[in-house]
């Protein structure tokens, strides 16, 4: 079973997180996420995909999500990271720091133009960009 890590800000609206989680669960994937206590990267690194659910629509993310993206990209450079924005999922292209001394607006995410579409079907770990979970 494909595992998807749900990366979210502590400030993200609960209904927004619930919506994304429900959409993922409908695709018969195992959703892993931090739910409290001492944080470790264990679940993140066991995942096949990383889905970012931000607390805003300006593509700025906090220090925690920035660190998760960095860890996931370092350990799983060929696996897909997507960003949820206004009901669509966009592949993450580049993430860079904003230069702001603000934990909530620590980095800016650059997205690829084509939104990914959730679809039914099997998944391919070998070719994550061609996976039916996030097809372009």
Give an overview of the whole structure.
Helix content is 23%, strand content 26%. It has 136 residues and is α/β, with parallel strands linked by helices. The protein has one domain: Rossmann fold, CATH 3.40.50. The protein is globular and about 40 Å long. The model is unreliable at 118-136 (pLDDT under 50).
Tally the beta strands: 7
Span of the ends, CA to CA: 22 Å
In the CATH scheme, the class would be Alpha Beta
Q: Radius of gyration from the CA trace?
A: 14 Å
Portion of residues within helices: 10-25%
Can you count the helices?
A: 3
The parts where pLDDT drops under 50 for at least 5 residues are 118-136
| Structural class by sheet pairing and helices | alpha/beta
Mean pLDDT: 81
The main pleated sheet reads as: 7 strands, mixed
So, CATH architecture?
Answer: 3-Layer(aba) Sandwich
Strand residue content: 25-35%
* General shape: globular
The secondary-structure element order is EHEHEEHEEE
Number of domains: 1
| Strand ordering within the main sheet | 2-1-3-5-6-7-4
CATH topology: Rossmann fold
Highlighted features:
136 residues, 7 strands, alpha/beta, Rossmann fold, seven-stranded mixed β-sheet, single chain
Summarize this entry quickly.
The chain is of the alpha/beta class. The protein is built from three helices and seven strands. It has a single domain, classed as 3-Layer(aba) Sandwich (Rossmann fold), CATH 3.40.50.
